[in-house]
Every structure is written in C-alpha cells, then in structure tokens.
Design brief:
Elements: E1 9-13, H1 18-29, E2 33-38, H2 41-55, E3 59-63, H3 69-83, E4 88-91, H4 109-114, H5 117-134, E5 137-142, H6 155-175, E6 180-187, H7 193-206, H8 210-219, H9 229-239, E7 251-254
Parallel strand pairs: 1-2, 1-4, 2-3, 4-5, 5-6, 6-7
This protein binds NADP nicotinamide-adenine-dinucleotide phosphate (NAP).
The site of NADP nicotinamide-adenine-dinucleotide phosphate (NAP) has 31 residues, from helix 1 and helix 7.
Length: 262
C-alpha cells in the first residue's frame, strides 16, 4: 500500500527520544522529510544523524523548549524554512511524571501542564494557520492510556493525556472544513527508557520492588509484552497518510489490548 507520504513535510516534536524518534523513522521510511525537535541539542543531533543513516531520508533538527511560545514559533518557522511548507505535525514531546495529588501544591500545579499539554497547544497554534493556507494537513497527537484509565498517582499523566484527547476531538471538528485531519494515538507501556523511569518512580512511591511492579504491569497486558516504539511509529505514519482521508477525531490505541472500555 502506498501511503502517499513521499515528499511531505513533517514536524515531530520529541523526535530525539524513543517514541518520537520511532515516529520520525516510520515517516522517513515512507519518503516524508522530517524535522525533529527537543530541548537537548546534543541528543537531538545524535538522533538526527542516526535517523539519516538508518533511513537514508531527509532529516533536520531544531532545538526548542516547548515551554516557550517563542521557541514554538521559531520551530514552525524553521520547519518551513527547511522544507518550504508543513504538511504533518506530530506532537510527541513531553515527559509527565507520576505524583501524589497533595504534592501538587498551588505553586507546582501550573507546571503539571507544562510537562506536555501546553507544548502541544503552542505547536498547534502556530502550525494550524500554515496548514490552513495549503488546504491540507495531518495532525497526530500522542496521548496515553492515562487519559481514559485513571490511577491513584496518575493525576498529572491522566489530565495531560485526557486534555490532549479532548483537544484532538475539538480541533477535528474545527479544522475539517480546511481538510486538516486531527487524530490521536494512545500508547501504553512502550519499551522505553521512560518506562524504566516510571517503574522506578512507582517503586519509590509505593515502596514495592521495581521488578514486581514491572512483572505485574506486563502481566496485565493481553499480548503479554511491552510495546515496541516502531509499533507506535507505524500507526502514526498510517494516520498521517493519504490512506486515512476519512478519519478524523479518532484515538487509536497502541496498547497490546489492555484498555477494556468499548
Ligand atoms: N513510553 C511510553 O510507554 C508511553 C506511553 C504512553 C504515552 N507516551 C507518550 O509518548 C510521548 C513520548 O514518550 P517517550 O516515552 O518517548 O518520552 P521520553 O523518552 O521522555 O521523550 C520525550 C521527548 O520529548 C522531549 N521533550 C520533553 N519535554 C520537552 C520540552 N519542554 N520541549 C521540547 N521537547 C521536550 C524530550 O527531549 P528533551 O528532554 O531533550 O527535551 C524527548 O525527545 C509522550 O507524549 C508520552 O506521554 C509514552
């Protein structure tokens, strides 16, 4: 199946690390040109070189802290300067940490949304007018299962990811007349450094051994294994493609079947 992605201009935020990097790789293998963005410029350049080597595609990198609107604006401008336009935006930048609700004091609360949601919003705000001008666009927001399945210590992750789904649906309606399709993916327990950190954080919060937490979490997944980053990347590439031209406002689970809701 030809996904029709050859020559498309894509921006993948969070493209220096596992999930975002895998998304970039999937898009590159389909012939898209890809800008990756993250804060740490050294890690970003290492990822850019590796992606170029592995896929033979056109990869650019731009360091940006998406807690800054100035950086978000500059990132969209840099993508247009590199490729001439922007067809596909994949919002994947963010690292949301588990926390006890009462530890999120009045001072700390606004920062909860800076971990993920606000950066997505900033990129959307600057990317949408560009896509509107061309009458074609694909936006894929990386959410997470915490959006739909809440836990005792998942308030930050749950609220960020639930807001991302709500935003996805609203924008799907608002942007349909402009032929801009907006969808989300909902990954869960993808085998990443970040998951290792989450297991350690949960162990510290609960006082249970990390190995026990890992075993229990994996045993709850019907496919009995963690997901691979490329399994998220390929779903995102499909949603970004010409083959999903009647799909908007959807949220595609990439979770080994763990979500039980219909
Ligand atoms: N891994 C999973 O199992 C899983 C499950 C559900 C959902 N997700 C979602 O998938 C996405 C990526 O997850 P991941 O596991 O690959 O996370 P990760 O390893 O923590 O990577 C996060 C990426 O975002 C960048 N980033 C973080 N804060 C940023 C900021 N303020 N400005 C710009 N870039 C920023 C990081 O680079 P710098 O640190 O250099 O900025 C990195 O490239 C996130 O949205 C996450 O919530 C992951």
């Amino acid at each position: 199946m030809d996904l029709g992605l050859a020559g498309k201009a894509a921006l993948v935020t969070g493209g220096s690390r596992v999930v975002g990097r895998a998304v970039a790789a999937s898009l590159l293998r389909e012939g898209a040109r890809v800008m990756i963005a993250a804060r740490n410029s050294k890690r970003l350049e290492t990822a850019r070189e590796a992606l170029e080597r592995e896929t033979g595609g056109t990869v650019r990198a731009h360091a940006a802290n998406l807690e800054s609107d100035v950086d978000a604006r500059a990132l969209i401008d840099a993508t247009i300067a590199a490729f001439g336009h922007l067809d596909i935006l994949v919002n994947a930048a963010g690292t949301v940490n588990p926390a006890e609700f009462l530890s999120l004091t009045e001072d700390r609360w606004p920062a909860v949304f800076e971990q993920k949601l606000n950066g997505y919003v900033r990129c959307l705000r600057h990317a949408i007018p560009v896509m509107k001008g061309r009458g074609w666009g694909r936006i894929i927001n990386v959410s997470g299962l915490g959006a739909r399945e809440a836990g005792a210590r998942t308030v930050p992750v749950g609220l960020n990811n639930a807001a991302v789904l709500n935003l996805t649906k609203s924008l799907a309606h608002a942007l349909a007349p402009d032929n801009i399709l907006v969808n989300a993916v909902i990954p869960h327990i993808i085998d990443t450094d970040r998951q290792d950190e989450t297991m350690r954080e949960l162990a510290a919060l609960t006082g249970r051994p990390e190995a026990e937490i890992r075993k229990q979490r994996v045993s709850e997944i019907p496919l009995r294994r963690m997901g691979r980053p490329e399994e998220v990347g390929d779903v995102v590439a499909f949603l970004a493609s010409e083959r999903t031209s009647f799909v908007t406002g959807a949220a595609w689970h990439v979770d080994g079947g763990i979500a039980r809701g219909i």
